[in-house]
Specification:
By secondary structure, this protein is α/β, with parallel strands linked by helices. The chain is built from ten helices and nine strands. It has two domains: 1-66 and 154-239, Rossmann fold (3-Layer(aba) Sandwich), CATH 3.40.50; 77-152, no CATH class. It is 37% helix and 23% strand. The strands form two sheets. A six-stranded mixed β-sheet has the order 5-6-7-3-8-9, sandwiched between helices. It has a three-stranded antiparallel β-sheet with strand order 2-1-4, with helices on one face. The longest helix is centred in the C-terminal third of the chain and has 17 residues, at 166-182. The chain binds adenosine-5'-diphosphate (ADP). Residues 13, 18, 36, 38-44 line the site of adenosine-5'-diphosphate.
Length: 239
């Protein structure tokens, strides 16, 4: 079975639907970008995938070893997070909480995992530094290392490059590509950057009132909705 199978899902608030007819699946090693206008329901879908919100109807099923608490989630950066007064090491370690269960002290397994993920993301030298003193790109690497502590299977990222400078944006995309290719970690990313989406992702879910699109990147680029969205947002330079 797929890691995520979404069948005829309707999402909304207080009895009013926001997204309807959601049908898609995500398999291990996929790289899915979720795109769509502001207010189309992307964050609502993220909440549903994390089981923070129930569908009004339809089913979201998880399989292939995945459970909702086994998804490594990288939330959108907020001002509060940017000012968080903890060390890099503490923040990365906190990603282990869900996976190993709550204990009064972190054990060796958690520390090893945090160290391994800091090394993987090239932030070992920042371990003792205070999170809020880091650059935006470094902060995202820390949050990515934290998310990796929570999962072996899947990263769910909400606008992970917003607010970063171009070099840090590229760095982030390269890191995600590496995790996807080398470690076969499934990537699901909400993104405003349609050009990056059609460059890096293999599948696209475009949420809009109707019709939605779900399929391969190649089919998206050829589809009416894909062509329209790519041209409105500045032409299909990666298409
Ligand atoms: P996106 O992430 O694509 O910008 P959202 O999922 O945040 O879209 O929002 C989709 C729609 O749901 C919007 O019309 C928004 O106003 C509405 N909405 C979001 N959160 C709530 C909430 N907690 N209660 C009621 N309506 C909400």
């Amino acid at each position: 079975m797929a890691q995520i199978l979404c069948e005829d899902v309707v999402l909304g608030y207080e009895g009013k639907a926001v997204v309807q007819n959601l049908n898609f699946e995500v398999n291990q090693g996929d790289y899915l970008c979720i795109v769509g206008e502001n207010g189309s329901g992307k964050s609502t879908l993220i909440k549903a995938l994390l089981r923070l919100k129930n569908p009004m109807s339809g089913m979201i099923r998880m399989g292939d070893g995945l459970e909702a608490d086994g998804i490594g989630y990288l939330p959108q950066q907020t001002i509060v997070q940017k000012d968080f007064p903890a060390s890099v090491q503490e923040i990365v370690l906190s990603g282990c909480l869900g996976r190993f269960g709550w204990r009064p002290f972190y054990g060796k397994a958690e520390k090893d995992m945090a160290e391994g993920n800091m090394e993987k993301l090239g932030i070992t030298h920042l371990a003792k530094r205070c999170y809020r003193e880091l650059s935006g790109g470094q902060q995202q690497r820390v949050l990515l290392a934290r998310a990796l502590c929570a999962t072996r299977y899947m990263l769910l990222l909400d606008e992970p490059v917003s607010g970063l400078d171009p070099a840090a944006v590229q760095e982030m995309y390269d890191l995600l590509e590496k995790l996807n290719h080398e470690d076969r970690i499934t990537i699901i990313m909400v993104s405003h950057d349609i050009h990056a989406a059609v460059t890096y992702a293999d599948h696209i879910l475009h949420i809009s009132e109707e019709p939605l699109f779900f399929g391969t990147k190649e089919d998206y680029i050829k589809s009416g909705i894909g062509r329209a969205y790519l041209s409105v947002t500045g032409g299909g330079r990666h298409a």
